[in-house]
Amino acid sequence: MIRRSFNEDWQMRPKVNPFAELSGQAVPYTAVTLPHDAMIGLQRDKESGGEAGANAYFPGGAFEYRKNFFVPADHRGRHILVEFEGVYRDATVYVNGAYAGQRPYGYSRFHVDIAPFLRFGQDNEIRVEARAHRDARWYTGAGIYRDTWMLVGGPVRIAADGVRITTPDIDADLATVDVASTVENKSCETRTLSLATEIRDADGTTVAHADSPVTVLPGESAVVRARHYVESPLLWGPDTPHLYTAHVSLTDEEGGLDSETATFGIRSLRLDPRRGLRLNGEPVKLRGTCVHHDNGVLGAATFASAEERRVRILKEAGFNAIRMSHYPMSVAMLDACDRLGMLVMDETFDVWTSAKSPFDYSLDFPEWWERDVEAMVAKDFNHPSVVMYSIGNEIPETGSPAGAVWGRRLAEKVRSLDPTRYVTNAVNGMLAVMDDLASLRKQAAEGAGINTLMATDPGDMMNAVSTSELVTRRTAESFGVLDVAGINYAEDRYGLDRELFPDRIIVGTETFPTRIDRNWQLVTEHPHVVGDFTWTGWDYLGEVGVGRAQYITEENPRPAFVAPYPHLVAGCGDIDITGHRRPASYYREIVFGLRDRPYIAVQRPEHHGKTFAGTPWAWSDALPSWTWPGFDGAPVVVEVYSDADEVELLLNGRSLGRRPVGKGHRFRTAFDATYEPGELTAVAYREGRESGRCAVRTAEGPLCLQTEIDRPTLSATAGELAYVTFTLTDAHGTPHSAADRPLCVEVSGDGVLQAFGSADPSTEERFDTAERRTFEGRALAVLRPTGPGKIRLVATAPECEPVEVLVTVE
Which of 455, 508, 629, 678 has a beta carbon 3.0–4.6 Å from 532's, enabling a disulfide? Predict the structure, then answer.
């Protein structure tokens, strides 16, 4: 089917009661371009209670979008669909005032057949309603937040999602590529057609070709299977993400009827408890991260450039796998994972039949789950990056027979749709037996009672509960229906299950970032454990403050999970919402064995002597900075991360001593120092010889505003963005993290300011204004082109020279 972008020329407004419009339009529409997040521009509600912190204190609401579009008269009799990649939530679609379709789940791609409601040769109106209200545990956004497309096909056509590709047999000399194409015949006569398939490599060279005749009866469909053989195949993998394309064309004696193109990779998957997960015959451990769908300053709006930027930065930080949490991944991110070589665990749902929020998807799950599973698999099928499907996250029912029945249904449904990938479920053992926690309190865990653990470290408490005999027994059937047992926050089960269930294969579907050193050791030591997915690699809006730094006081004797307004972000990402790597990211890179140089992070001197009390998702409150004005002569703690034997710390050339580091010391050490401006250097030693060094310096002299643009040239196509990073520095380029000030931007020419913000975790500032205060010396502007030409951005800040950025749009 012919596919065209349907993103332009929409209007949006809050949903209006029709009775309120009897006296005239009560609320005007605003012109928008999709993708669009209707929630990110709303005023946050500081009067909301703690539950609203899940959604970052953004209010819910109902929203309606409309678009006028012309349909040519010659389209009469054609099959016309509108594809929505994501509408949050409870989408209802009307065409020329008539109901045309709906989709309750906010993360499913869906199609609406609009042909029966169209006026051909005239203008038409499509209207979409969406709503969000206390229906999730994170920031959801609202509205038509992913791409839309119009699909047009004749009576005889290749079905939407009708080309599916598998690579069942692969060796160094030859790969078998099976292309299954579904042809639909909605005409009133039998048609005999020809379907041709070409396989092309990345250079566009045809490497295999097949022609197949196909006869399709009226009102029926037929699947045409073409088996191709590609010589000397270039295999897809994280380090070699080679892609091919299949071009499928449908013709009859009069000429072409339809065509489709699908991108795919040639790769094989194998799985067993003794060799773990093998990709193209080679064992691979998943250095994984969980991510939410929001794009920070953009809110939930899913632009292709934003998704690719996230994947690229995550891969540069050492990750090779992403778990989309806790819903299906966008098409744009899947495409980026294919191109860049990132493995994917795609997930279906956060709830089944038991609600976690008052108005969540559990209300619709029994009726809609099959269609939503089908939508996810259809979206993912040709993407080589996808290696595993997760059928749920922390589902309370998994500890019951009824929940195991549901798990079996979902797992078998996935397998019936795609037998080439593996099925997991992210099980939280403590949640699975939540109704029995009272009895567990009476039991003693090894080394400490459950009551003691529940009052201290929640990570230890989760492990103690999850390794209990009760959890082992209650989750056995739910784990038994899976190919891979997904385990959340219970790494103590890894060794236990090797004894209890020798054939059980495990993946840490969600783990504490503060425990990556121990977890990664378990992953590398146990062949039946195929990887670790930290919570989380990229910070996100909502679940505010779960990873923030906290300190013990009389008023706050223990860490709280949710932070009060105006907290905005979770604060537990290795990478902040602007794409800047935090110290935890470099620590993880060292643990993974991907960085041989040490790394310095300095704890904020204003908190010296206080007792840190963050949750297990919270990293220490440290910065890679040696610029602390006002603290001359003050005591300060310097953290150094390294996999070497020892590190020496030098302050302005003076040694502050050597300390052991490396694996036996959790890859970290700390030095007590007294702050004085200058240079702080960490020198690593292996077997007595220097193996690497890292230095931080004090920013001095006049401030400068430095800019860096990720893409100076853009195309004027949908999904394109340019990211401009601002950093306050001294004249030598040393970042100044303690000189924050308001920053103003002015954008002109052939583009607009799509968003502007910082990583400030607690602020009332908005992302849709042209002035923001920097945070730790940094801010981020996102530009969206409106057509070919030039985009000009001018930025000004007090005591800094103005800077100008030019972006070419081709």
Answer: 508
Q: For residue 500, give the DSSP letter.
A: H
Domain 2-153, CATH: 2.60.120.260
Residues sharing a CB contact under 8 Å with residue 469, sequence separation 6 or more, in sequence order: none
CA distance 19 to 25: 10
State mean pLDDT over 765-784.
Answer: 98
Q: Do the beta carbons of residue 658 and residue 646 sit within 8 Å?
A: yes
pTM over 0.85: yes
Nearest of 276, 347, 289 to residue 319 by alpha carbon = 289
| 125 vs 637: CA distance, rounded Å | 63
Tell me if residue 149 falls in helix, strand or coil: strand
Work out the mean pLDDT of the chain and round it to a whole number: 95
SS3 state of residue 516: helix
Q: Judge whether residue 447 has pLDDT over 50.
A: no
List Cβ neighbours of 674 (8 Å cut-off, separation of 6 or more). 633, 634, 635, 636
Task: Identify the CATH class of 596-697.
Answer: mainly beta
Task: Say which residue the tokens 């403050």 belong to.
Answer: 545
DSSP symbol at 497: H
pLDDT of residue 458: 78
**Into which CATH architecture does domain 704-809 fall?**
Sandwich (2.60)
> Which of these, 368, 373, 367, lies nearest to 415 by C-alpha position?
373
- Two tokens, residue 148: 């839309």
Q: Which residues pair with residue 230 across a beta bridge?
A: 175
**Cα dihedral 585, 588, 593, 597 sign:** positive
Mean per-residue pLDDT for 605-611? 95
Q: Are 277 and 284 within 8 A, CB to CB?
A: yes
Report whether pLDDT(25) > 80.
no
Residues 664, 665, 670: CA angle, nearest 5 degrees? 160
Could you give the CA distance from residue 34 to residue 19 in angstroms, rounded to a whole number? 29
Q: Give the model's confidence band at 438: pLDDT under 50 very low, under 70 low, under 90 confident, else very high.
A: low
In the block, residue with structure tokens 């619709």: 364
User: Which residues lie below 8 Å from residue 52, measured CB to CB, with a gap of 6+?
Assistant: 45, 58
Pick the CATH number of 156-264 from 1.25.40.20, 2.60.40.10, 2.60.40.420, 3.40.190.10: 2.60.40.10
CA distance 31 to 131: 19
**DSSP E strand boundaries for 96-173:** 98-103, 110-113, 122-132, 148-153, 156-170
In eight-state DSSP terms, residue 625 is -
Contact in structure between 11 and 67 (CB atoms under 8 Å):
yes
* Interacting residues of 215 by C-beta distance below 8 A, sequence separation 6+: 190, 191, 192, 193, 222
Phi, psi of 483 (to 5 degrees): -80, -35
CA separation, residue 587 to residues 489, 535, 601 (Å) = 20, 15, 10
- State in Å, rounded, how far the first CA of the chain is from the last one: 27
Q: Quick count: other Cβ atoms within 10 Å of Cβ 566?
A: 16
CA dihedral 226, 227, 232, 234 (to 10 degrees): 60
Q: How far apart are CA 486 and CA 413, in angstroms?
A: 18
Domain boundaries, the chain: 2-153, 156-264, 273-534, 596-697, 704-809
Domains 156-264 and 596-697 share a fold: yes
Longest dimension (CA), the chain: 90
pLDDT tier, 50 (very low <50, low <70, confident <90, very high otherwise): low
DSSP states of 278-302 as a string?
Answer: EETTEE--EEEEEE-S--GGGTT--
Q: Any idea which residue has 């060279």 for tokens?
A: 205
Which among 776, 766, 771 is positioned nearest to 740, based on CA atoms?
A: 776
Report the run of H or E that residue 795 belongs to, with start and end.
strand 789-796
Per-residue pLDDT tens for 143-200?
Answer: 999 999 999 999 999 999 999 999 999 999 999 999 999 999 999 999 999 999 999 9
Give the residue carrying structure tokens 């097949």: 210
Are 289 and 512 a contacting pair, CB within 8 Å? Answer: no
